Amino acid sequence: MISPGCPGAIEPILTILDGKWNLLLLRELFNGTKRFGELRRSLHPISPKTLTDRLRMLEEQEIVTRTLYPGVPLHVEYELTERGQRLQPIFAAMWMWVQEYGACPQKETDDGGQDAEAVM
Amino acid sequence: MISPGCPGAIEPILTILDGKWNLLLLRELFNGTKRFGELRRSLHPISPKTLTDRLRMLEEQEIVTRTLYPGVPLHVEYELTERGQRLQPIFAAMWMWVQEYGACPQKETDDGGQDAEAVM
DNA sequence: CTCCATAGTTCATTTTTTGAAACTATTGCA
DNA sequence: TGCAATAGTTTCAAAAAATGAACTATGGAG
């Protein structure tokens, strides 16, 4: 479907990073193992359907593992695989970009350039 | 709309990277200045509407500049801004990941592993 | 005044993604 | 038996994104 130009075929990563929630979901998982309910709360207005869809896709892509813990209230933990952990440099590069250049232009107020102050 | 967890707010970059075509489009622009028609051919099954939509968004985000060259057949060149160039490390990280881990599981053919041959 | 080439725009339609609400499944305990 | 807690699934509707085809705009050459 895609005709890759020579320098750098990024296609295999498109499935993983594309979509409204994938980057945010992966960011959560970089902070460690998470349970379904935790993810649902962190990503708050996400619907359970969308969340399971994304998680299943990431499982298929071998980016996360799903572990079921039976018990009184059963629970499930999602964790990054090795393959998933290795995405970290991509996110690190994003974070650096956002720090230096993240202040979006969005809508320029025409009263002159008052850049957004740092958001952290 | 999004409640950022402390470590690394990547939200400002979501607009820029999200969507089916954005990564592919940016990749083209890392190879240098491109004209509308060139982009259209490189990204082949893209529709002109989608292409202009994406380019306008990237302009608003100050990732690309649009320069009109009047002349016999007029033409337009799209080029990355400084801000856009600085996205390069993100793509570099993606390329490295793809090289090492890119072979997608996709659908495991149970007849044994005949991996896709290199597409370069 | 028409034609060519480039770069779009417009509009209706299709495809894809997301969503909300309600329902299922598991298991121990009261 | 019935409830509580977790983690989903199902169904149908809504919203967003992408598409295709045809049309507009520009400006010089013939």
Task: Describe the fold and architecture.
The structure is a homodimer of 120-residue chains. Chain A has 120 residues and is of the alpha+beta class. Chain A has a single domain, classed as Arc Repressor Mutant, subunit A. The first copy, chain A, is 45% helix and 12% strand. Chain A contains six helices and three strands. The first copy, chain A, has a three-stranded antiparallel beta sheet. The longest helix of chain A is centred in the C-terminal third of the chain and has 14 residues, at 88-101. Mean pLDDT of chain A is 84; it is low at 1-6 and 107-120. Chain A binds a DNA duplex (30 and 30 nucleotides) through helix 3 and helix 4. Chains A, B: This is Helix-turn-helix domain-containing protein. Chains A, B: Residues 6-106 form the HTH hxlR-type domain. Chains A, B: It comes from Cohnella silvisoli.
List the helices and strands and how they pair.
The structure is a homodimer of 120-residue chains.
Chain A: H1 11-17, H2 22-30, E1 34-35, H3 36-42, H4 48-60, E2 64-69, E3 75-80, H5 82-85, H6 88-101
Antiparallel strand pairs in A: 1-3, 2-3
Chain A binds a DNA duplex (30 and 30 nucleotides) through residues 19-21, 35-37, 40, 45-53, 68, 70-76.
Domain HTH hxlR-type (chains A, B): 6-106
Protein name (chains A, B): Helix-turn-helix domain-containing protein
Organism (chains A, B): Cohnella silvisoli
